[in-house]
């Protein structure tokens, strides 16, 4: 793959809207054209080269393009928005909306990622090596369908409402998830190392697996017994788990929750 390297200059004091940072947008353009791609901060319009030094080789197709962001970009939002192919690696932490509406390709954030990362993903892979903010893999405000495909992996912890309105795909948080994980979930798989409370609130379908503890379980989940080595889709989980169904506060709820208390 051919690599374009973006080295951050001084970031603005408020969010930099840089949805142009995408393999689909970069592929087939010259370096000069990439430098002049529009970005927005506050009510101002600038160009990518105002905030990043740009170097490297441009690929002819998105699937042949890799973008390296070499440093922290904690004020830069919408990295990889709608990306369908290629790879982005952030060698640091990023702001909100990483991989939103992503349909293919791969994004790796070596630090932390802000809220709404992986929002309404349809495919591809998002790997956050640090922690993720609130609303990971969620729906856009006012929309009732969240992430529908692809895979999100977080090596650290994640905030509130992970997988809100989840409608497909896989979210795997190795650490702890905040309150209301899997709220209004319909399809897909959400896996967490541990959870705080209100897991699966209003869920009607899909599967949630908590490998460790759930601090407070909603009373609207029915205990169905203990199972060994449960499976969900292509994923298998070793050990003994308590199985619940719910959320029975909702009509015709068919969601499944496994709690392991492991580790």
What is the fold's blueprint, element by element?
Elements: E1 2-8, E2 16-17, H1 23-26, H2 31-35, E3 38-41, E4 44-47, E5 52-56, E6 65-69, E7 76-77, E8 87-90, E9 106-109, E10 125-128, E11 151-154, E12 167-177, E13 187-197, E14 207-210, E15 214-216, E16 222-228, E17 231-232, E18 235-236, E19 240-246, E20 255-259
Parallel strand pairs: 1-6, 2-7, 6-8, 8-9, 9-10, 10-11, 11-12, 12-13, 13-14, 13-15, 14-20
Antiparallel strand pairs: 1-5, 2-3, 3-4, 16-19, 17-18, 19-20
Task: Describe the protein.
- The chain has 263 residues and is mainly β.
- The chain is built from two helices and 20 strands.
- The chain has helices spanning 23-26, 31-35, and strands at 2-8, 16-17, 38-41, 44-47, 52-56, 65-69, 76-77, 87-90, 106-109, 125-128, 151-154, 167-177, 187-197, 207-210, 214-216, 222-228, 231-232, 235-236, 240-246, 255-259.
- Strands 1, 5, 6, 8, 9, 10, 11, 12, 13, 14, 15, 16, 19 and 20 form a 14-stranded mixed beta sheet that branches. The chain has a four-stranded mixed beta sheet with strand order 4-3-2-7, with no helix packed on it.
- A hairpin with an 8-residue loop joins strand 19 and strand 20.
